[in-house]
Amino acid sequence: MNIKKSFLSILLVLCLLTACLAGCQKGGTDNSDDSVSTEFVDYVANTTLNMQSGTKKQEVTVKSYIDGDTTHFFVPESIDPDGVLKARYMCVNTPESTGKIEEWGKKASNFTKEKLMSASSIIVESNDGNWNVDSTGDRYLVWVWYMPQGSDTYRCLNLELIQNGLSISCGTVSDLYGVAASNAFQQAKANKLHVFSGEKDPEFFYGDAYEIDLMELRTNIENYDNAKVAFEGVVTYNNNNSVYVESYDALTDMYYGISVYYGYETGALLNMLKIGNLVRIVGTVTYYEAGGTWQVSGLSYREFKPDDPGNTVMVSEGHKAAYVETAADLFANGKIGIEIDFEDEPPVSKEFDYAFLAMNTTVSMKDLTVVDVYTTHNGGESDGAMTLTCESDGIEITVRTIVLYDENGELITESAFLDKTIDVVGIVDYFSGEYQIKVFSTDDITVH
Questions:
Q1: Do residues 370 and 402 touch, judged by C-beta distance below 8 A?
Q2: What's the pTM value of the predicted model, to 2 decimals?
């Protein structure tokens, strides 16, 4: 027996096995093989859901769509006490479409949403005989299967994302469907699909601004001081040369907002900033010293360069303000813990005052008793504006109005509200060291 040849054969086998296992580790995307055939194989169709296997399975419905590789599903409380399974897709790592936006992130997010929205049935499956959580301890690692309308066969969405070149990594071949995932991944790379195409993402703006969302801006706003940012939001109010914009974040189930100062702009830019428009804002984050608040100003817009990625642009119209119904105690005393995690990095937990996170968003509050009214008299444009000190279950809430007039053009005074019970809708504002609700019209206050 040739011991040297036997040893070399064993070594060769071990090297091939190691390469196979390492070829698709999370985060590794530089393992292309020019010899891979470009003939398309539908690994999704070739992979079937075995309902008789020993893995955990549960039919689910969608609670909220987060991004390409994360979805929240309603499940029985026997699986999760909250009745919600926060699914992190096994073997999938799509580009980001929340927080800091990345190329192909929106494409992946929309792909996942469209497949699940059109499904007649959705099943989540564990990787083994247990429901396993990821490094955050909050999300379950699962395979997501969906049955398209008109079909009687489930398709694995994890594999479909990988096969379409919308995942930048694919786990390992030791995972339940790891071999199919690895093959689909290598095929997508060989065919230069989406993230491997080397082409620009048509849904991504390649400008000099940080592409983020309002949740990222509000929870890390100091990091963007004097930085140029781009984000989307619905215009809810227009007052004093500024508009308020807000957007919903499904991950934290909250709205986030910011005040956008447009100054004395006119024409097309101002026309975009109409109430109810969803707008992509591009501007600079600044700290407004006089008010002690953050805002975005210096809007970027070039009317004669409509394709400029640095432009503020209108996305769509016909939207409405959220007016989130808010309890007085939550507004005055609430603390919100936000756990921010970036894929495989350890999650970072931050605690914020509820009102800080809700700044510049629309809220509603009911059954406030007005116990005191202060009317501004300083000889300026604000003469007649009122500050209403209100109470609800022993909690003090401040409501600030602009100068209000009735239908006859008469100034509305404190007698209209003092000792009355009111419902209000308005913007969360900050003045003289406290959070308050600011209202902009008589329609924003309902007297019982």
A1: no
A2: 0.83
Q: Is the pLDDT of residue 362 over 70?
A: yes
Say whether 296 sits in a helix, a strand or coil.
strand
Using alpha carbons, select from 171, 323, 299 the residue that is nearest to residue 237. 323
Q: Is the dihedral of CA 174, 178, 182, 183 positive or negative?
A: positive
Mean pLDDT along residues 55-74:
97
Rounded to whole angstroms, what are the CA distances from 174 to 55, 127, 332, 435?
15, 10, 51, 53
Local structure of 443: helix, strand or coil:
helix
- Residue after which a domain boundary falls, among 169, 196, 223: 196
**Residue with the two structure tokens 């070594």:** 11
Cβ atoms 145, 49 nearer than 8 A: yes
Q: Are strands 386-392 and 362-375 parallel, antiparallel or unpaired?
A: antiparallel
CA pair distance 53, 308, nearest whole angstrom = 53
pLDDT at 156 over 90: yes
- Domain boundary residue among 304, 322, 340? 322
- pLDDT, one tens digit per residue, over 235-290 is 999 998 999 999 999 989 999 999 999 998 878 889 999 999 999 999 999 998 87
| Residue in 400, 429, 437 with CA at minimum distance from that of residue 417 | 400
- Is residue 237 within 8 Å of residue 193, measured between CB atoms? no
Instruction: Please classify residue 203 by burial: count the beta carbons closer than 10 Å to its beta carbon, then call 0-12 exposed, 13-18 middle and 19+ buried.
Output: middle
**What's the rounded Cα separation, in Å, for the pair 429 and 432?**
10
54 vs 5, 9, 133, 334, CA distance in Å?
Answer: 42, 36, 18, 44
Q: Between residues 10 and 441, which one has the greater pLDDT?
A: 441
Average model confidence (pLDDT) for the chain? Answer: 89
Length of the chain: 448
Q: pLDDT tens digits, residue range 207-242?
A: 899 999 999 999 999 999 999 999 999 999 999 899
pLDDT at 404 over 70: yes
Task: Give the CATH number, domain containing residue 237.
Answer: 2.40.50.140
CA 328-329-333 angle, to 5 degrees, is 125
Specify whether 314 is located in the same domain as 335. Answer: no
- Are both 240 and 166 inside the same structural domain? no
Determine the structural domain holding residue 248 and report its residue range. Answer: 210-322
- DSSP label at 345? S
pLDDT of 18 above 60: no
Average pLDDT over residues 139-150: 97
Identity of residue 190: A
SS3 of 137-187: the string is CCCEEEEEEEEECCCCCCEEHHHHHHHCCCCCCCCCCCCCCHHHHHHHHHH
